[in-house]
Amino acid sequence: MSREEYPTSRRPFAVPPTLGTMRDWNRRRCARRGHETYAPVGPGIETELAARLQVQTAHGPAWRCLRCGDFAIGEPTASGPADQAPAVPRGKALRDLFILRLLAIERVIRGVVILLIAWAVWKFGSSQYAVQKLFESDLSAFKPFANHFGWDVEHASIVERIRKTFNYSPKTIHTVALLLGGYALLETVEGVGLWLAKRWGEYLTAVGTSIFLPLEIWDGYSKIHEHKSYVFAICTFAINVGAVVYLLVSKRLFGIRGGGKAFEAQKHADALLTVELAACGAGAGAGVGGAVGAASPSGPGAPGSGVPDTRAALAETVVLSQPPLTDPAGGAR
């Protein structure tokens, strides 16, 4: 597009740290959900911030999307003070959210399957004698077919294990069903927490999955030792180990890589509005924290404001060394 078609008086803006490497993730999200634009309104830093997020075009004002960084012509989707701007996941945070939701779907599916198994076990405990009678009757009818292929059904391992279950008391079987139901509930709660990207969900998943890893190791070892199929056990174990390692490292759980404070600082540093706030403060020539605070006592970085103080500490590493990017008018300012 030519500068004559979209005239603007804006100066060049800095490129957010993940705009180049994660742009496809951001644009895919915007293509499905629409752009997230925000108009800062207020007497302090909001005036300069609004000027950086808006550009005048031949078709009217265009606001910069807080997710993908592109300009969208039309009115902003929301407006208000800078410290009340929505936290829009973008870049690496958006990719992490996608991975968390994949894990959440796997957890919910596993919880539903285990819940169905628990229901079947409970029903079996309630009608154990009838099920045993039906099993023996069907087994007798199946014997001629198995004998034709030389299969000794009476001494088959699976038949012997099923018969052993008939020796358990109904109370024991009901206890097993309740334990399976509790495990299914745990998996479902983990899935909900991961889907909502809650910190407690990440901790619950890491702890709950780690507790059962020794049992999975023993189960896999037993199957290998008895020359049974162990492919499914190994796949399940690999998924659980991968999920735990991913959560511990990427989400900085239990103080790893700086812990929760470092995780929140990185998340806010990747936010486009944080980058623009830092740029506004840097342009004032007095450092981000000082400029923002001087512009508005109730603005970002001020005591009691909703904007994290980590913006000032991360400002220099976030935006000051970023390369220039041309605006929709076709020229770099």
Blueprint of the fold:
Layout: E1 13-14, H1 23-33, E2 38-40, H2 45-53, E3 54-57, E4 60-64, E5 71-73, E6 78-80, H3 92-126, H4 128-148, H5 157-165, H6 170-195, H7 199-225, H8 231-250, H9 259-269, H10 272-283, H11 288-295, H12 310-318, E7 324-325
Helix pairs in contact: 3-6, 6-7, 7-8, 10-11, 10-12
Apparent shape: elongated
Oligomer: single chain
Could you tell me the radius of gyration in angstroms?
29 Å
Distance between the termini: 15 Å
- Give the helix tally: 12
Percent of sequence in beta strands: 5-15%
Bin the helical content. 55-70%
Q: Give, in order, the helices and strands.
A: EHEHEEEEHHHHHHHHHHE
Structural class: mainly alpha
Strand ordering within the main sheet: 3-4-5
Unreliable spans: 1-22, 283-333
Brief characterization of the structure:
With 333 residues, the protein is mainly α. Among the domains are: 13-91 and 270-319, no CATH class; 102-195. Helices cover 59% and strands 7% of the residues.
Question: What do these coordinates show?
Answer:
The protein has helices spanning 23-33, 45-53, 92-126, 128-148, 157-165, 170-195, 199-225, 231-250, 259-269, 272-283, 288-295, 310-318, and strands spanning 13-14, 38-40, 54-57, 60-64, 71-73, 78-80, 324-325. With 333 residues, the protein is mainly alpha-helical. Among the domains are: 13-91 and 270-319, no CATH class; 102-195. The strands form 3 sheets. The protein has a 3-stranded antiparallel beta sheet. Strands 1-7 form a two-stranded antiparallel sheet. A hairpin with a 2-residue loop joins β3 (54-57) and β4 (60-64). α3 packs antiparallel against α6 (170-195) and α6 crosses α7. It is elongated, with a radius of gyration of 29 Å.
